[in-house]
Amino acid sequence: MEITGCHEESIEFSKKLVSEMLAELFERYPVLKKTDFQVAQNNSIVQKESTIINAEIALLPPFSGG
Q1: What is the total count of domains within the chain?
Q2: 17, 27, 54, 57 - which has most CB atoms within 10 Å?
Q3: How do 57-60 and 38-41 pair as beta strands?
Q4: Which pTM value belongs to this model?
């Protein structure tokens, strides 16, 4: 994301939920708290209550279809 200045980052993470991962990212990058985005795990949109599996996580900016 342009906001964080990182295109890609590897993070060792011991928590289990997407919401816990987001809390850690908000500490590292407070500007994300004000940003609208969705979270994808292995190319599928997931909810904050989802369990993280050893996976690729992506923060996706808002997009529209049609």
Answers
A1: 1
A2: 57
A3: antiparallel
A4: 0.80
On whether residue 41 sits in a domain, the answer given is: yes
pLDDT of 63 reads 76
Which of these, 53, 18, 11, lies nearest to 39 by C-alpha position?
Answer: 18
- The domain that holds 32 is classified in CATH as 3.10.20.30
Q: How far apart are CA 46 and CA 38, in angstroms?
A: 8
Domain containing residue 51: 18-60
Count of beta carbons in the 10 Å neighbourhood of residue 57:
18
CA distance 52 to 30: 22
Backbone φ and ψ for 58, nearest 5 degrees, come out as -130, 140
In a domain, 34, yes or no: yes
Give me the residue label for tokens 């994808």. Answer: 40
Other C-beta atoms lying within 10 Å of the C-beta of residue 21: 19
